[in-house]
## 1
Amino acid sequence: MIPDKIQKLIDVLSLKTETKKAIWTKGSTEAQYKISISDANALTISRWVDSYKGIRQYELIIYGEGGTAIESIEVSDNDNPIDFEMFRKLYELARRSYFKTDETIENILNAIESNDIVGKEDDDTLPF
């Protein structure tokens, strides 16, 4: 079971991210996102698949002053489904925020719903 304060942190941060009031950056791995809360505090959310066990896992790390990891919590799809879903949702919100997914989809919709021609000819030749 995830501690109450961590649940609240995830809930509030998820809401801030959903309402576009949180700025996520890329973490140190391909599947990690980071948010700096202040000069002294940050957190990361990561996802990976344990290929040996075949399970999905998420990890939330909270960093204190000097970049020291002060809390680390992992959940997998073998754990409490509510906890797993909370971490999965935060990860997906962070990923979508970083890549500006909603804005990109909106731009594409605006382009294809207009009367303008969409697409362009590709001058690149195939490498084979």
## 2
Amino acid sequence: MLLAVVGASAALVRLLGSCLARRYPITTIAVAFALARMIGLGILQPKFRLLGFEAYGLLYVATQPVVWALYFLVILELYSLALEDFPGVRRLGRLALASALGAVTLTCLVLLMVDQQAGIDPSPFLSYLALEERSVFLTLCGVTLLLLLFAAYFRLPVRRNVLILWACFGSYFLVNAALLALRWHLGADFRPLRNVLNPVCYGLALLSAALFVSPAGEIVTRRVRPVWGTRDPDLETALSLQLRGFNEALVKVLRT
């Protein structure tokens, strides 16, 4: 957990010190909340009890849904910044992501009923929590990938800081989803290793953000292109015009 605390502290100092917190308020709040949560959990690591319950477990369970919601809001913020010149498309994407939050809840309930490995933990509640966390991170991976494919298809010019944060959080979502899938298939014996690797990956992701995010990254833009494609100025112009036309149509529709 120490590396995660160091990474979150470094990322928070970078965002606040570089005056980027106003540009990325949700990301800043998410990092600050994660840092405060990790410090609180670290303080409560001993078997401290509150009202007859283990205080560490109470804090963990009570704050976990907030963490998940903030991850979705971070993706929404980065998506909105990548499409700040296309308000119609941006608004449609916000509606889609808001729907994804409801879809995650429904998916968790469905998986809880159909998954045949729901008893890998001694506690049924811990089994449900692990299943729900796996569903959340798989959904986060899917949403991040879809938004990246959308940006790559239309060759969107995106600010470097947005791409860096996108890569850092997206990498963490992917690695954690893989760890949760392994934990689910290998059983509770994999839990200690996953509990070590998860904060390490999170700390490395935030340290990378702290190292590469900068005020200059708000000036420099990079056009997102598919790895399998080649640079074609005519195609990029045509796709840009197509997206602008789609955006104008959405603006008219959403205003009515």
## 3
Amino acid sequence: MQENNIYDDYKKQIIREFNENCQKIKKEENMPKKNKLTPEQIEEIKSRKGEFLSDLAREFNVSYQTISYHQKKVKSENGKNHKSKHVIKQKGVKLTKEISGNHIKITVSIEI
């Protein structure tokens, strides 16, 4: 009987941690990022594809990752699907969240 209680407590703890991790992911994705570039600058970056990222970054006083992000955004706006994958591993639980276009797939693996 005591083993069942221990197992139930462990199961509740896993579910609680899973819910907390989901909330963290949701919070991170919904938080708006501060944009260092004006909409006009973003359009100019999109139109200057093919130039070195570092040169554009220096010119607009941002990181090359910011330039790359806005140039990749052009691809996704032109019909290519946005894809991302988040994996969280913690205490025998693996949470995988995959986003592809308008589809979200969440997988939970529990080691017993």
## 4
Amino acid sequence: MPPTAVPTGPATAVPIRLAQVFKQARYAVPTLPDPRWGGEVLTQPADLAAVRDVMQAAGIEVEEAVLTMIPKNTVRLEEKDARKTMKIVDALEDSDDVQEVHANFDIPDDVLEALAG
């Protein structure tokens, strides 16, 4: 699963710096169109350190560089199923025996708002 590197910092010459990052990484995707606002760069696990090092050498502040699980496919949940799923996720996250919870569900914003309200 791809890791995440989150760049933040000055925007001067950022397109050139990001070009260096993308050249180093076999697969890199900024999630935000304007790096001045920060964002994520996804790369293969084996390239995590190299991409982080290239970003730092280019003067791009890396807030965090971590390995994380990203699903290839997601399942969209409506309110009834989302409510049940969130109960399970909350219980898992509250358990002292669980370090991280990964899932492949997608809950639309309006459903999340209804669950929170």
